[in-house]
Structures are given as C-alpha cells and as structure tokens.
Amino acid sequence: MLRFSNLALRRGTRLLIEDASLVVNIGDHVGLTGSNGCGKSSLFSMILGELEADAGELKVATGISIAHVSQETPAVDRAIVDYVIDGDVEYRGIENQLDEAEKTDNSMKLAELHERMANIDGYAINSRAARLLGGLGFSQEQHQKAVKELSGGWRMRLNLARALISRSDLLLLDEPTNHLDLDAVIWLETWLKNYDGTLLLISHDRDFLDKVINRVLHVENKGIDLYTGNYSDFEVQRASRLALQDASFQKQQKQIQHIQDYVRRFGAKATKAKQAQSRIKALERMELIAPAHVDSPFHFSFPPAEKIPERLLTLDRVDVGYPSPDPETQLEPILKKVELSILAGQQIGLLGRNGAGKSTLIKLIAGKLGALGGTVTPAKDLKVGYFAQHQLEQLDNSQSPIEHLTALDKRAREQDLRNFIGGFGFVGDRASEPVGPFSGGEKARLALALIAYQRPNLLLMDEPTNHLDLEMRHALVMALQDFKGAMIIVSHDRHMLRSTTDSLLLVDNGVAEPFDGDLDEYQHWLSEVAKGRTPNAPAENASAGGESAANPQDAGATKKEQRQQQAELRKRLQPLKNKLKSHEKKMEELQSKLLVVDAKLADSASYDDSNKDNLVNWIAQQGALKQELSEVEEEWFAISEELESFEE
Question: Which of 169, 263, 265, 309 shows the greatest Cβ crowding within 10 Å of its Cβ?
Fold first, then answer.
C-alpha cells in the first residue's frame, strides 16, 4: 500500500525524517507514534500529496481511494445528514448521473446506473449516515439541522462521520478521539476494528490504539521504526531496547520501583471489588511499559495541599441545571436529588452518555453552577482545582508560562517558577515566550501546571487529556496516583480512568449513582442501552460517594441516618488510616535508602580494594534495610486487612 524508500523530510530548515525505508502492507492497521513535532502529521500531508519528499521517495499504490478528516468545516446551511453523505463522492456522482439520465429518458443508462448504485449499497446511504451520526453522539433531531449551527467540537465529529462514510482503501485519522466522549470512543473503536482497508492512525489514547492497530510506526531521532503488534507490544519491545542503554538504566529502575511501591500499597484491595481488580491489573502492566518512558521530558507532581479536610463537599438532594433564557419559564433540572459526599483520598471516575450531565455535575461541584434545589455544603478549607473542557481559552495568549505563574504568586523567585514549570516541558526560552503560538498540547500542559501550582485538595478534571501526547499522559497518570486529595475525573481515556480511579459514578437519566463494575462492564452497559434496553447500573447498597453501608440493616434507613452511621464509622477508622499512612511513609523512606545502597553495590568501583571497608558496611546496611522493610510491610498488610474487615 505504502513504500518509503530512503525518505527525508524537512519543515522549513528543520530536518524531521531522514533515510527512512519501510513498507505498509494492504490491510494493516498502523498506529503512528512519536513526540509532538516529530513529523507524524507531515507524513500524512505527504501521503495526501500536499508535501513532497526532500530526498528519497514515497510510493502510494495506484488507483486507491484515500479518506481523511478535513480540519475545516464550512458554515453552510446544508443539513447535517446531507453534509455527511457528501463524503461518499462516488454515491453523489452516480446520483447526479441518474438525474441527468432521467431528464433524457435514457433507459439503458438508467439501468446501468441503478446497478452501480446497488453495487455500492447506495440505496442504504441514509441509514448508513444515520448510524455513523448516532455512533458519534448526534441525536436524531440534529440530523436535519444546518451545519452552521454546530460548535467547533461537533463540527470535528461531523467531519469524522464524513470521512468514515466513504468506501476508502486507505483511511488517515489524526487524533480522532480528541473531541469525543467515552461512549463515542468505544463506538469508533468497534467501527475501526471492522474496517477492512488500510488504516494509519495518530492517537495518544493507548487503550484505543491497543484495540484497533496491529502495527506501530514510531518516529524517533529522525528515523522511523516499524513494530509488530499493538501499542502495549510496542512499549515492551521499545523498553527492551532502552534497557540496553546504560544512561537510562538508573532512571528506569526508579520508575519501576515507583510503580511496584504503588502496587504493593494497594494490592491488598485487589479482591475487594471488580474496579479495584481492574486498576491493579493496569498498574501491574505499567511495570512492563514504564521503561518505554524513561526518556520522557515530563516529570511533575501535585504539591501537597495545605489542608485536606476529611469531608471536602456534600451534596444533599441537589437539583442542578441551567437557568431558562425566559424568566417566566422554569427549565427541568438536568440532574435531580443528587446525593454525594466527597471524602479525602477518594478518586472517582464519572461515566455517562453524551449529554447525560457529567460536565454539569462537575460545574456544580466547582462552584460554576448554582444548585436549583437541595443543599451544597463545602468544607471550610475546600480548595478546588478545576480543569474544564475549554480551559485553554482562559489562558492569556500575550503572556508567557512564567508570567502566568507570577500572576498566581507575585512573591515567588523566578528560578523557583522555572524549576516548577520545567517539569511540564517548558524549559529555557520556551518558558518566557508568549503562549499564543503554542500548540494545543503545550497550552493544556500549562493549564495543568497552573492548577497544580495552586495546591488544591479537590481536583475536578473534565477531559484533561485532550491535546496531550502519550508521554504527558503518562506523567499525568503518575502524578494523579500520588495526589493526596480527592479527585473526580471525566475522560475518554480508559487507561487514565483505570489507573487513577478507585470508584465509578454513573450519570444517566437525571440521576447520579454508583457503578459497581469496571470499564468493560460499562461498555456492555452502553451496548445494552444502544439496543434499546434499559439495564440497571450494577450498584451495591452505597451512597453516591461509593461508601458501603456499615451493615445490611442500613438498607432501610433514611439517607440522613446512613450519613450519620457512615460518619461514625469513619471516626472509628481514622486512627487505623493514620497508622496505615505512617507505615506507607516509612516504607517509602526505607525503599529510597535501599535504592541508594543497591546502586552502590551495583557499581563495580565498590569492589576495589580501597573500598573494602565500605563494601562490608553497605552489604550490612542492605540486609538490615531489607529486614526492616519486610517487617513494616507485614504490619502494613495487617492494618489493611483490619480496615477491610470494618468496611466489608
């Protein structure tokens, strides 16, 4: 299908790719990966004939049909469904010829054209367009609306539908999930798995890539390497190569140690619930993939909040929605009688179909929307960090990253600000340049940095991964895992949800209820809904915050009584939780010390005669540290089991 021969490509004076040779075969589903700016989108432009190679050549099989998603959508009066059908150029061509043949009453031509129309399944074009639009989140009522009425994100969905309806031999998709929510991502994933042409896909969603591709083209250091398998296979293969690089070895070990520590601390929870099992599996897999990210330029954490109240916010029978433009008309609330308690340390993933009210609930908790009924009770020391879907629009394009931080903390030293912002990839002159020309990914990184700098104790993240590349997503997952406050996340990135949340909340049909299942079960739930069924979300006898009732008799108690009982239970458990945290901190200290001693013992210079006495001491320290660590871990597991016995 595609053949690269000694290819070289420049953009301006910058050499992106040189001496690249490889073949993409017919029917391959290929993920194109690499850091931002490495040349992935430029390769797409070459395939489309918009750019020429600076050396070598790119051969595209002759006579093939190529489909891609246009970046522009004209503000036209044309109906949405007709605009999508326009993407099937062959259908429109036959349709026009049929009109001409009917005008001239050419029966032979009409018979030929009707046969061609049947061969391309043209008579089912309207139902095909409706299925595509429905899968991408458009309601039936929207189909006849004008294209010009759509917002930017919905126009991108429309262009995606227009590309998918074409019967192409080669499909080029550049970040197709960026403007989709989770149910649309799952639908698109299924559609692409069944696509029988050749697919080239640029995406920063690892779960999406894993399900769709069977090859990876990785652009790195001006070269292109072809890997067999999905994205997880690629990470393991690349990690094996990186492990041979001595310069990366120590950094790789620290990354693996970090993940092992996390699995060790939370592994005891694996038998408690399906969601916990799913999370542990994801973390265990991260041990394999972590080495593939040892050279990531992004390493940051959320600074600890000054105070973290035990109960950060409570919603008591809250109605939430938007005010009516007509003062005399009261609109129906989007969500009704919401009961939610957000406690320190909770990590909640918010699920729900498009338009169900996920973002509305987030805005209520963030204080951007007032309650239409019920009571919202925030803690005295509540400090919210809110990443909205349109957060990038809040940046001042004339200011630099450093100036944005200075506006938050005028007394901070510039070097301290530079050190902080450097973890988000803004180093050297980049930290002082106006953000206007920055890419969407760079602006998203800056928005996250501004939130982290303010040290919130409650994080609200509404699609935080839009525009973020794989390396930054990896860094964000690691930072969120270590965040000590509470957080609620809406994301179409299932890897992030699996790796950072320990409970799920489903927003559907005007209510918010616990979803006691994992993301695979949520996908099944979506499938049942799509078939016209109305399945109940799997849920235990729990409050919306995911807390189990203290005993079975609470099922008949009032909500107020349940909250009182749960508060009493938390009070009894707090000493155990404090003891658990103390042991976790001790384990981290011992592991850090052990890592230092292990590094000394791994150094060949330690075995020189001049270091004989030191060597004996280091070996003794290693044994003592391992023994102490084992004892602390045993105590930690005992405390964990005691806690679980109360919570079951």
Answer: 309
